[in-house]
Design a protein that fits this description.
The structure holds 2 protein chains of 2 kinds. By secondary structure, chain A is of the alpha/beta class. Chain A is built from 16 helices and 29 strands. In chain A, helix 9 packs across helix 10. Chain B has one domain: Ribosomal Protein S5, domain 2 (2-Layer Sandwich), CATH 3.30.230.10. The chains are: A alpha/beta, B alpha+beta.
């Protein structure tokens, strides 16, 4: 059964979790959740996967085509209190969420929960629907823009739930979140619901995050702006899982879905961090033929991947697979024969989108990528992952969701998933962001536990988690990077910018950060206006 | 030191601050707007008031718009604004009131 979650007053009864965070008893009661008790707490704990309600189609005269989103909502039995699923493959160019929610609002539905793989600035238009009670719940990897601010200011009636990409699949498959209707923005689709991420005018390459919606939502609506002849095959989301198909003018803004390749950085600070990162990779024992790797699209990450490729070529070392979000850097490696397989969950630029059609560039589901509650996902097979963070603290805990000023401003994405899965997890993080120290005593909010983080690369040196003596020994022996303790890095930061005052929060808890396994990693409190 | 006329120092670039001083109404009045007010508001206020005190400014309206400047920058911008307001551009007391 889905749990009813409402905002509560902070109480004195607390439970301390494995990352030292106080989780109020009240929050545990309301959510029915446990506190986070370490990465492998649920190892081997069996559960029953939940299946969707299925409305069979036997009559060959039955049409799945609907004339409008309104008609789709009516046919799907839309009602007050429903939960709607969405994917974020159109990124900042997404038009689907706003289009559907406008109709939901205009039809007068209330108390709706959005369960999206992520939400961003493209969804600022939803703000009035939060204020008028149309939307009362948000479950997402994170939120940027006005909605993040609205949640932080306590405008959302229920607790916001921030969960990783793997965590979303777990929550849906375990029945914790029941999706009444999922809307799948499909770049191409036929009249019987075979959806593909490839083709059309809103080409996003893959539909990985919505596989679970196809498998588990009680009703599935494909929304497309490019209807193609039957069968649209091979399909990412098959017709066997789709109830209705709706054609609209546009589901995305192409130039915001996939941009051109990011310009290689010339920022010497980023290039220095990229070099440290590459040195860490090539001087640790997993850098050998067939190794596996995931990286992001930050300037330093891209630069590090490029320099790594050069060293791989020189030494005749090939990568077995790369997984996660894809961009030009990884596509180039595939071109040069430096990587065996790209396992793609999201495409950040046109190079990645166009590469999806090629052999050895495979589309995988978010579940195969990162779901902690299946029988083993790809992140478990990672040797290296290179990540970023807003803040890292002296316990190596990372924050990627809540800004240092207390405002929700980012998303977990696959951060906690890949960080736990990889043998060597590297976080690249400049010591200072303006005056804000990124290396601090305690992060504002824990999103990824320190036990998952092995190496922190900054522009002032590299810190290794003391739990990873093996990595520390390897880097010491190689004498390849300036090694510091995490406390030394924090002290350097505080010496330059001064120690920050703790942010003043209100009493109300407005959201929870869910760990991969569904336990509570941290809570997010309402921000209040600053007073001296 | 008496604030004679309105004066300004600094910019609105990231990691800088813009300081405006004007003649006051009998006391030091400090208005602060900062990108990092939640973490550093107290500290910025402290460094600004200390600097004004050291310069002997007891009657002024001071406005700081801060974009994440370090303490040394804030101090320098406050000093520059104050000396500009009294028209002193030479013989600045380096090592004295300006530490």
């Amino acid at each position: 059964m889905p749990v009813e979650i409402v905002l509560v007053k902070y109480t004195r009864e607390l439970k301390i979790n494995a990352v030292g965070r106080d989780i109020p008893e009240e929050i545990l009661k309301i959510t029915g959740k446990e506190v986070f008790q370490g990465n492998n707490y649920k190892e081997g704990v069996e559960y029953h996967k939940q299946g969707p309600i299925v409305k069979p189609v036997l009559d060959h005269n039955t049409s799945k085509m609907v004339g409008s989103i309104r008609e789709a909502l009516i046919k799907c039995g839309a009602h007050d209190g429903m939960t709607l699923g969405f994917h974020h493959h159109f990124r900042e160019g997404d038009l689907v969420v706003n289009m559907v929610m406008k109709e939901v609002h205009d039809m007068g539905f209330k108390d709706v929960t959005i369960c999206a793989s992520s939400l961003g600035k493209a969804h600022d238009a939803l703000l009035p629907y939060i204020e008028d009670g149309t939307i009362t719940g948000i479950q997402s990897s994170g939120v940027r823009g006005k909605i993040g601010e609205a949640i932080s200011r306590g405008k959302l009636q229920k607790l916001a739930i921030m969960r990783s990409h793997g965590g979303r699949v777990r929550a849906i498959q375990s029945g914790e979140t029941v999706l009444d209707i999922s809307f799948i923005g499909a770049p191409t689709c036929d009249d019987y619901g075979n959806c593909k991420g490839i083709g059309g005018k809103s080409d996003c390459g893959v539909l990985s995050y919505s596989f679970v919606d196809g498998q588990h939502a009680n009703k599935v609506v494909a929304i497309t702006d490019c209807l193609v002849p039957f069968p649209n095959f091979p399909a990412d989301i098959a017709m066997t899982r789709v109830d209705y198909v709706c054609v609209v003018d546009a589901i995305g803004i192409p130039e915001k879905i996939a941009t051109g390749a990011a310009k290689p950085t010339t920022d010497v600070r980023k290039l220095m961090m990229a070099d440290y990162c590459t040195q860490v990779v090539i001087n640790t024992p997993w850098f050998k033929d067939g190794f596996s790797y995931q990286t992001g699209v930050g300037g330093a990450s891209i630069a590090s991947a490029a320099s790594l490729a050069k060293i791989m070529e020189e030494r005749g070392i090939k990568m077995g697979f790369a997984v996660g979000g894809m961009s030009k850097g990884m596509v180039d490696m595939l071109d040069r024969g430096l990587v065996g397989k790209l396992l793609d969950t999201q495409d950040f630029d046109l190079f990645a989108v166009n590469s999806v059609k090629r052999p050895n560039h495979h589309r995988i589901s978010a579940g195969a990528y990162a779901n902690p509650f299946n029988k083993g996902c790809f992140v478990n097979k990672l040797d290296y992952v290179v990540l970023a963070a807003l803040e890292v603290d002296t316990h190596f805990n990372c924050n990627v969701v809540v800004g240092s000023d207390g405002m929700i401003t980012g998303a977990q994405g696959g951060h906690p998933d890949a960080a736990q899965g990889a043998k060597c997890t590297i976080v690249i993080c400049p010591l200072l962001q303006g005056r804000i120290p990124a290396i601090c005593t305690d992060v504002t909010t824990v999103t990824t536990p320190g036990e998952s983080i092995d190496v922190v690369v900054t522009d002032y040196g590299v810190a290794v988690n003391p739990a990873r003596q093996d990595i520390l020994d390897a880097l010491k022996a190689a004498d390849c990077v300036p090694l510091k303790t995490i406390e030394e890095l924090r002290d350097i930061a505080y010496k330059i910018v001064g120690e920050p005052d703790p942010v003043q929060f209100g009493d109300r808890i407005v959201g929870i950060i869910e760990a991969r396994d569904g336990t509570i990693m941290d809570v997010v409190r309402e921000v209040k206006d600053y007073t001296v | 030191m008496e604030i004679v006329k309105a004066a300004i120092a600094g910019t609105l670039e990231s990691s800088d601050c813009m300081v405006t001083v004007e003649p006051g109404e009998g006391s030091v009045e400090l208005e602060l707007e900062s990108a990092v007010i939640r973490q550093y508001g107290r500290q910025i206020r402290k460094i600004a008031l200390e600097t004004l005190d050291r310069l002997g400014v007891q009657d002024a309206k001071v406005r700081i718009v801060d974009k994440g400047a370090l303490d040394c920058t804030i101090k320098a911008r406050v000093e520059a604004a104050v000396y500009r307001s009294v028209g002193q551009r030479a013989d600045l007391p380096w090592g004295g009131a300006i530490v």
